[in-house]
Amino acid sequence: MERNHREEHYVARVGWLRAAVLGANDGIVSTASLIVGVAAASGKTEVLIAGMAGMVAGALSMAAGEYVSVSSQADTEKADITREAAEIAADPEEERRALADIYERRGLTPKLAAEVAAALHAKDALGAHVRDELGISGHTEAKPLAAAGASSLTFAVGAALPLVTAALVPEATITLWVTVLSLIFLALLGAVGAKTGGASIWRGMVRVTFWGAVAMAVTALVGKLFGAVV
């Protein structure tokens, strides 16, 4: 009987999960910090205008930044693959021995390592070197558009949460409500991100919430002391 072995590993989500968590976290923290800082020195109208401007600018900035940075990673990966293909074409035997050395270091006997390297070279030499020598796989390869889209969208969603809070609560309590609810949002984000990535939920919650609280506290302090926002 033919059996299909199919497993979905968490590493398959790395390409978009990192960008999504980063975008949502940055959207909540930066917009909440901006609102808290402005609220410490200005009125509700200024708070909402600053928050909306921060949300739009931040989402666009995240998209551009992720696309440029991940594109640079993709360009490096492509250059390495091209170089590896040229080396295989120039001296396939030496490259086969190099692959066998990698398998020996991982625990195979010299004889078995040589056999595995020869078999993989016969089937797909470049694929074997890209995976085992360069460490590039379909799960972890750079995907600029996916990263840009995920970070931009999640930034906007994250930024909308403190912005809507500021719009709905009384002016006198903006700082309190935005701070408290943003910390709750961050805790939920940490939990969702950790769950999606198969990591410790509590660790993810504490890490994201702690640094978000630090960022908002520093921004509020600056707004209070200098009547300005950083």
Structure, explained:
This protein is mostly helical and 230 residues long. The protein has one domain. Helices cover 80% and strands 0% of the residues. The radius of gyration is 24 Å and the shape is elongated. The relative contact order is 0.19.
How many β-strand stretches? 0
* Helical content band: over 70%
SSE run: HHHHHHH
The value of Rg in angstroms is: 24 Å
Q: Look at the structure and give the mean pLDDT.
A: 79
Distance between the termini: 65 Å
Shape: elongated
Count the DSSP helices.
7
Number of domains: 1
The largest sheet, given as strand count, sense and whether it forms a barrel, is: none
Write the layout of secondary structure elements.
Elements: H1 14-39, H2 44-90, H3 92-105, H4 110-132, H5 144-168, H6 174-197, H7 201-226
Helix pairs in contact: 1-2, 1-5, 1-6, 1-7, 2-3, 2-4, 2-5, 3-4, 5-6, 6-7
Main attributes of the structure:
disordered N terminus; 230 residues; 7 helices; mainly alpha
Short description:
Helices cover 80% and strands 0% of the residues. By secondary structure, it is an all-alpha fold.
